[in-house]
Structures are given as structure tokens and as C-alpha cells.
Amino acid sequence: MSAQHLFLVSLAVLFAAFVQGATGVGFALIAAPVIGIVRPDLLPVCVLVLMLPLNLYVMWRERGAIDRTGAGWITGGRVLGTAGGLWVLAALSASHLSLFVGLSTIAAALVTLMMPAFSPGRSAFVAAGLVTGVTETATGIGGPPLALVYQHERAPTMRSTIALCFLVGELVSLATLMATGRIDGSQLRAAALLLPALVVGAVLSRVVHRRVNGGFLRVFVQVFAIVSGLALLLHSF
């Protein structure tokens, strides 16, 4: 990446880490479209690698609030969905993947904004994990289905449980991508360059995560995601 591109993506990663640390979701929705515009070949590996330390930190910070039962069912669906994500990667070129990321981002944000309140059960958890497995393996974006099933839970439960599900799922996706030869040095180097911005955003989230208006931030993230997705769609044509 050029210095200008690195600065732009670093700002997106810093803000994305802050938002996810404060609300539990939003990192990939914010970071992936920006990375997709600048360097689509870095998706999804760069996003998945960056999310590992972020989600480990968020999970550990509020580990006492984790919903272990829900996380178990989500993880089962998540593992099954990984195969679908690999199929998407194999079927799409880099430019088409950018288009897919843009459409996925907009669709996920709209569903999360419009879905009415409900009490999730086993089938909802498995379905959320399945969809997350497909979209996160293919694009790095997997938060909206998980945010959907936990949107009416306590904020600490939402943040910590989603972080645990992400962490396990990202390890599965990265292991699968590595086994199929879809990880290279440029993606890992880019993630290393962006790590300082990630750390700053995560640390800043610790200052405000107990006081932040989570509902407002979640809506803001979805609106930002729609705008970013539209920008990525325009960039793909």
C-alpha cells in the first residue's frame, strides 16, 4: 500500500476497532469496504487476522457475561458455513469479490436495522452461525447475523459472546484458507502494518465501553456500512 492508502485504511481500522470494542460489532462492516476499495486482494485474510487480537481482548475483558450455550450452537453453524465461504472465494475474481462484499455489507446492515425484536432459540443461533460462516470466510464480514440474535441482550453479553464466536470462527476460517493456499505474505504484512491502529482503537474503546450509547452506535455503524457498501459497489463498476 502507498503511504496515503495506509493512512486511510489505518484510520478506518482504528475507528472500526473502537466501535467493535464499544458495541461488540462493526469492525468488518467498517474496515472491509475500505480495504476492498484500496486493496481487494487483501480480503478476507487481512480483516480476519486483525480481528483475532481484537476479539480475544473483548472476550477476556467481559468473560463473565458470555452466553456459552448460544455460543456453542452458533459455532456449530459457523463451522458448517465455512465450506460455503470457500465456494464463494473460488467462484469469484477479485473485482467480483469486491462487488460481493459491497452487496453483503448493504444487505446485512439493512436486515439488522429492520429486523423486529425476537427471542432467539437454537435454530436462530445455528442459522446465524451458518450465515456468518459463509460471509466471514468469503469477505471477513460476519457480525450482522450475530448482532441480530443478540441485539436485545445486555451489552456485556452481546459483546463478549459475539467476540468468542468471532474468535473461534476466525481461527477456523484462517486454518481453512491456509490449507487451501489462499493466504500469502502480502496479506499478513498488511495486517502487521495496521496492528498499531487496531491497538489504539481497542484501548480507546475501553475508556467508553461502559458509558457509550450502544443503540445509537449500532445504528450509526449500520448507516456507515450502507454508505461504505455503496461506495464499494460504485468502485467495482
3D structure, described in words:
The protein has helices at 3-23, 27-38, 45-61, 68-91, 94-114, 122-139, 143-150, 155-179, 185-208, 214-236. Helix 3 (45-61) packs parallel to helix 9, helix 6 packs across helix 8 and helix 7 (143-150) packs antiparallel against helix 8 (155-179). The mean pLDDT is 86. It has ten helices and no strands. The chain has 237 residues and is an all-alpha fold. 51% of the residues are buried. 81% of the residues lie in helices and 0% in strands.
Cα-atom Rg, whole angstroms?
16 Å
Number of helices: 10
Main β-sheet: number of strands, strand sense, barrel status? none
Mean pLDDT figure: 86
Number of strands: 0
Broad shape: globular
Structural class: mainly alpha
Percent of residues in helices comes to over 70%
Distance between the termini: 22 Å
Q: What is the string of helix and strand elements?
A: HHHHHHHHHH
Family: Belongs to the 4-toluene sulfonate uptake permease (TSUP) (TC 2.A.102) family.
Protein name: Probable membrane transporter protein
Transmembrane segments: 6-30, 42-60, 72-92, 99-118, 124-150, 162-183, 189-208, 215-234
Subcellular location: Cell membrane
Care to give the gist of this entry?
The chain crosses the membrane at residues 6-30, 42-60, 72-92, 99-118, 124-150, 162-183, 189-208, 215-234. By secondary structure, the chain is mainly α.
